[in-house]
Amino acid sequence: MKLSTVLSGLSVVAGTANAAIHGFNYGAFFNNQAAKQQADFAYEFNRAKNLPNQSGWNAARLYTMVQWGTANDVVSAIPAAINTQTKLLLGLWTSGGSFPNEIKALQKAINQYGTAFTDLVVGISVGSEDLYRQQNNEVGIGPDELLGYINQLRSTIAGTPLQGKPIGHVDTWNMWLDGRNSKVIAALDWVGMDAYPYFQAAFDNRIENAANLFWSAYDQTKAASQGKEVWVTETGWPVSGNQVNGAVPSAQNAQTFWKQVACGLVSRNINTFWYMLQESQWGQANPDFGIYGAGDLGALSPKFDLSC
């Protein structure tokens, strides 16, 4: 066999091994507060894996391990992911005293589903935008409490099949620039960045400048990350809703943002979880970031072209 053939084969293997993770964010309930069931999650996961003019969007970011409306039952997204072979970025909700039940649900999932579950896990997020909410006088937590939860999670998964899975925290990009939160970065394996130029009302956030705002946020987060990998855990542009300063929701603008940001993230091999596949179901979201509108995902077409 020629050396060039061998090297070519090794290159393909290496490229596959280093391929970034691409997926969507998935809430635990619909707009009418009804809990998503296993079939609902499976339907969404399968739609994401078969997008027109796209491929590789086969991962799901979850916000909680707990099935909506229960104390600490395992969220039904877990068996749905197993059945559809969807990769998982787990989320444990930390605000409002919920963390003990999140830990219980995580332990139940490990015991109930074993490696069929844990082999799909690409990472675990301790919390979501807690630092942002705390700083804005909403229900959140500060850096010291968050550190305690990170350490508790590491102790919980020690000796289980989840040991060694990369642990991170998801927050708005500007929280990572705050020196008070540097101790949190030091305790993480990766940094999760949420960035929405649409909401950046203090800036020129017209769609013409949106990509510049996004990549500026990414670069600043990367500079503050202490060498940790930065995962883009939420971003997107709404197809409908209210105008925020210069940011106008529309399918055309959402397509522009997708082509400039989503396609850029894919080409730069950055782990990405887009917001979101379908936001309006059993109620209209405002703003609505969904690639798909309300209705049957199997019958609908995307609101805009997803090709890169």
UniProtKB/TrEMBL annotation:
It comes from the Eukaryota. It catalyses: Hydrolysis of (1->3)-beta-D-glucosidic linkages in (1->3)-beta-D-glucans. One of its GO terms (molecular function) is glucan endo-1,3-beta-D-glucosidase activity. It is found in: Cell membrane; Secreted, Cell wall. GO terms for cellular component: cell surface; extracellular region; fungal-type cell wall; plasma membrane; side of membrane. Its EC number is 3.2.1.39. Residues 1-19 form the signal peptide. Keywords: Carbohydrate metabolism, Cell membrane, Cell wall, Cell wall biogenesis/degradation, Glycoprotein, GPI-anchor, Hydrolase, Lipoprotein, Membrane, Polysaccharide degradation, Secreted, Signal. It is a lipid-anchor; GPI-anchor. GO terms for biological process: cell wall organization; polysaccharide catabolic process. InterPro entries: Beta-glucan_modifiers, GH, Glyco_hydro_17. It holds the Pfam family Glyco_hydro_17. Glucanases play a role in cell expansion during growth, in cell-cell fusion during mating, and in spore release during sporulation. This enzyme may be involved in beta-glucan degradation and also function biosynthetically as a transglycosylase. Belongs to the glycosyl hydrolase 17 family. This is Probable glucan endo-1,3-beta-glucosidase eglC. It comes from Diaporthe helianthi.
